[in-house]
Each structure stands twice: as structure tokens, then as C-alpha cells.
Write a structure and sequence with these properties.
Blueprint: H1 2-21, H2 31-41, H3 61-77, H4 81-88, H5 95-107, H6 113-116, H7 126-144, H8 169-179, H9 192-195, H10 242-246, H11 261-269, H12 272-281, H13 288-299, H14 308-313, H15 322-333, H16 336-339, E1 350-352, H17 359-363, H18 374-377, E2 385-387, H19 409-421, H20 427-438, E3 443-444, E4 447-448
Antiparallel strand pairs: 1-2, 3-4
Helix pairs in contact: 2-7, 5-7, 8-13, 15-20, 19-20
């Protein structure tokens, strides 16, 4: 008898849950307004907001632990407070946020079941999902304008690489010279190109780069190619732009180890021929600011278009193999394109290393270089968050991750599935994703990178 009553109660609850979750009506309005309504009306900010007010039952022992866990995962995945703010102000939303929201709407991953059971109206019904997806589609069409993307690919989370920004040719020439100049280092042995070798995909292919006197850095050197498209520079985002980034290594004691920029400028100033060329471009003379400006101007030209994937997105179906195309579809389904979004497939946001599983506990030997964005912003919520690297030319930029611990793309893809996506794929599927990643190798100066 008790079992029958329990079954009836569960049936009633299930019916009520189904009716409530499918009863939401999205009011008329612009795509922005509809998307805002769905996000707010479905209580998405109850978890996806660092300042969200916790429900009353969060004080209960077991329920409280679940609430804390849900909010921690939710805010690490995406903080929707800025999205809502932008929607209210009629502003665009970042491509990574767009991709994360679109993925959740398309695959019904949010909110999690345990949350929906107690908050029936939080689950998106078909009309609400379509409202979100229609808004995302319109935003992506705006982003794809003038990109050359074929119409059928306008709603993709990624798009063809943007052209290099306009630069000053005279500054670029001077910057290229300085990029390869070892006089920026203490003992005249290390240049920017030492760790960011353009013939090696813009890296040195070492776990940690070697500086003056063979000293080793603490993080893996990221590629300099397409770095002009990054939101900020360095793994921990401590540099706002390429100029700031260029100013760091020359006086870093374990990299180029110069005592000061005055020391560097005096060495350069003593070279009369160089000084004359420099003054023609920068009448104010050789200073930290002008040297870094020239190097940054050169680095803005280090853009690698025309990867097979770019050609494919522009309509050339023969540019990629069948395996690579299948790999791209798996790449999207496995949530990879939620963070590696946009034309640079990364470089736009800072994400937690180990979203679903503790990467650092498994790896061991944790140190300050594993703090990520926290080292720059000193905010606890940014502990272990790193800039999502670009995946362009990724087949050439091994070893991988900020710690340089992974040597192959197969290993890197497997790690990301385990620690970030929570998606289980076969070895054959992982091989297909790797094949797709190999299609992201572009050209520089009209020649394919190798």
C-alpha cells in the first residue's frame, strides 16, 4: 500500500513538473529583451552570479553542501551578471558567454536536474530555448559580417580568422629588429625570438623556457602568433596589451635579466646606426615606451590566416578531410567551442583549470605559478583561472597547458575532456578531434607554418 501511494505521489509530482516546465510564455520584444526575460525569469542568476542570495535551505546541513557545490560550479562555468547588465544596456555579449549560453540551450544542460526538481520553473521549455538560440544567432551574424564566412556557417561558435590590424610599416620594421635583438638581455644572449621562435610556431617547444645563465621560467611560453587578438597577455593576464607584455621579460631576473630599462636603452643608444634609424621613427628617442611600442607593432603583424579550417568556413568543402570535419562536430559537442570560441578559438576569457575535477591535486607539486589570474587580481574566485589559449597552430605549439606537462594533442584533448568537459569519447573520436585541430595551422608571410 505504501509503495502504491509513493508511486502516485511521484506520478503527480512528475506531471506537475512537466506542466510547469513547459508552461512558460516568452513575452514579445526584441531578441535582446526576450533573452533577458528568459535568463531572469528562469532564475539563472540564482547560481550564476557571485553575489547571488542563497536560498533559505542553504543553511541546512546536506542541502547547504549541495547548494555550495552548485554555486561554485555555476559561477566557475559562467557569471551571468555581466551578461544581464549588457542585455539591459543593449550592449553585445562576449563570444564565449554566447557560446556557453547557446550550448546550454541547445543541449538542455542547465539547470542541473537536482536544481530543477526543487525549482520547476527554472527549466527552459522549447519556446524559451528558441528565444535564447534566436538571440545568439543574430549576435553571431553580426560578428561574422565581413569575415568571408559562408552563410551556412554564420551561426557557428567560431569563425574565420580576422585580418591583422593596420600597422605602421616603419615601426614594424624596427620592431622586428628589436624582437630579434639579444641586447635586450643582460648578457646579450637572449631575445624575444629565443622563447617565441617564429619558425617553431611562435614558441620554443620546451616545457619551461631558458633565460640568461640557463635559468628556467615557471610557465610554458605561449605562442606569439595571433596574440594581438587576445583579451589580455600572459597566462595570468597581468599585461593589458602587447606593449605591457613586451616590457616584462627584459627585466625579469629569470628571463632576460637586465637590471633596468635604462641599462637596455643605453646599450641601444650606443649603436649610432641603430640610433639614427630609430630616431627617424621615434623622434623622442630610445626609451622603454618606444622600444615596447615598436615590438608590439611588429607582433600585431604575426597573424596566421588561411588555415584549412578558415577555407572550409568560407565555403571550400574540400579544404578539410572527412575525419577533420567529423572532428569539428565532436569538438563542438564536447563543449570545446564554449571556451575556445571566436575567430581566434581562444584568448578571450580566463577559465578554471580543473572545472569538473581537481587537476592540480592529480598532478601534484602545486606552486604559485598555478594560481593563474589570482596572482594578478588577488581575488579568491580567480584562483586557478588561466587565459584560454588560442588553438590556432596548436599542432605546432607543444608542449601544452600553462605548466607544459602534456606533450601531445591526444593527451591534451583527453585531459580537457576529463577536467573541463565531463564528456566521454572513444580513442577514435579523440583522434578525429586531433585531426580537426591539425586543420587550424595557418600561413605566415604567405607560407604554411610547419
Amino acid at each position: 500500500m505504501k509503495i502504491k501511494i509513493a508511486i502516485v505521489i511521484l506520478a503527480v509530482l512528475a506531471s506537475a513538473f512537466f506542466l510547469v516546465r513547459n508552461s512558460g510564455k516568452v513575452p514579445s520584444g526584441t531578441p535582446h529583451e526576450k533573452a533577458l526575460y528568459v535568463i531572469e525569469n528562469n532564475a539563472c542568476l540564482s547560481c550564476h552570479d557571485f553575489n547571488a542570495k542563497k536560498p533559505f535551505y542553504a543553511k541546512l546541513p546536506i542541502a547547504g553542501a549541495l547548494v555550495e557545490q552548485d554555486i561554485l560550479y555555476a559561477t566557475r562555468s559562467i557569471d551571468l551578471s555581466q551578461v544581464v547588465k549588457n542585455l539591459k544596456e543593449g550592449k553585445s555579449v562576449g563570444e564565449v558567454d554566447l557560446s556557453k549560453i547557446a550550448y546550454s540551450a541547445e543541449f538542455g544542460t542547465m539547470p542541473p536536474l537536482q536544481y530543477s526538481l526543487f525549482h520547476w520553473k527554472s527549466h527552459l521549455n522549447k519556446e524559451e530555448r528558441n528565444a535564447i538560440l534566436d538571440w545568439v544567432k543574430i549576435e553571431r551574424q553580426k560578428l561574422s559580417q565581413n569575415s568571408g564566412v559562408a552563410k551556412e556557417f554564420e551561426n557557428e561558435p567560431v569563425r574565420p580568422l580576422n585580418p591583422a590590424p593596420k600597422t605602421n610599416p616603419a615601426k614594424v620594421a624596427l620592431g622586428k629588429e628589436l624582437y630579434n635583438d639579444t641586447r635586450l638581455s643582460k648578457d646579450n644572449t637572449v631575445s624575444c625570438a629565443t622563447c617565441h621562435n617564429l619558425s617553431l610556431g611562435g614558441v620554443d617547444r620546451l616545457r619551461y623556457s631558458k633565460g640568461v645563465d640557463g635559468k628556467l621560467g615557471g610557465v610554458n611560453a605561449p605562442t606569439v602568433f595571433n596574440s594581438t587578438f587576445h583579451h589580455r597577455q600572459f597566462w595570468d593576464g597581468r599585461a593589458a596589451n602587447l606593449e605591457e607584455q613586451a616590457g616584462g621579460p627584459p627585466t625579469n631576473p629569470v628571463e632576460m635579466a637586465s637590471d633596468s630599462w635604462d641599462e637596455i636603452c643605453k646599450k641601444l643608444d650606443a649603436d649610432q646606426q641603430f640610433k639614427e634609424r630609430f630616431l627617424k621613427v621615434y623622434p623622442e628617442g630610445i626609451t622603454q615606451k618606444t622600444v615596447c611600442d615598436a615590438i608590439a607593432e611588429f607582433e600585431r603583424t604575426l597573424v596566421t590566416p588561411n588555415a584549412p579550417f578558415d577555407k572550409y568556413l568560407k565555403g571550400d568543402k574540400s579544404a578539410m578531410t572527412k575525419e577533420q570535419i567529423e572532428g569539428y562536430e565532436l569538438f563542438k559537442k564536447a563543449k570545446c567551442a564554449t571556451c575556445h570560441a571566436g575567430h581566434n578559438l581562444g584568448g578571450l576569457t580566463f577559465e578554471h583549470m580543473g572545472l569538473l575535477k581537481d587537476y592540480f591535486a592529480d598532478r601534484g607539486e602545486v606552486n604559485d605559478n598555478d594560481n593563474g589570474l589570482y596572482n594578478f587580481q588577488k581575488d579568491d574566485k580567480n584562483m586557478g583561472r588561466f587565459k584560454t589559449p588560442t588553438l590556432r597552430n596548436v599542432a605546432l605549439t607543444y608542449p601544452y597547458f600553462h605548466d607544459g606537462t602534456v606533450k601531445t594533442l591526444e593527451e591534451a584533448a583527453s585531459h580537457m575532456l576529463k577536467y573541463q568537459s565531463g564528456v566521454s569519447l572513444s580513442k577514435d573520436d579523440i583522434k578525429k578531434i586531433v585531426s580537426f585541430l591539425e586543420a587550424l595551422t595557418g600561413e605566415f608571410d604567405g607560407k604554411p607554418l610547419k
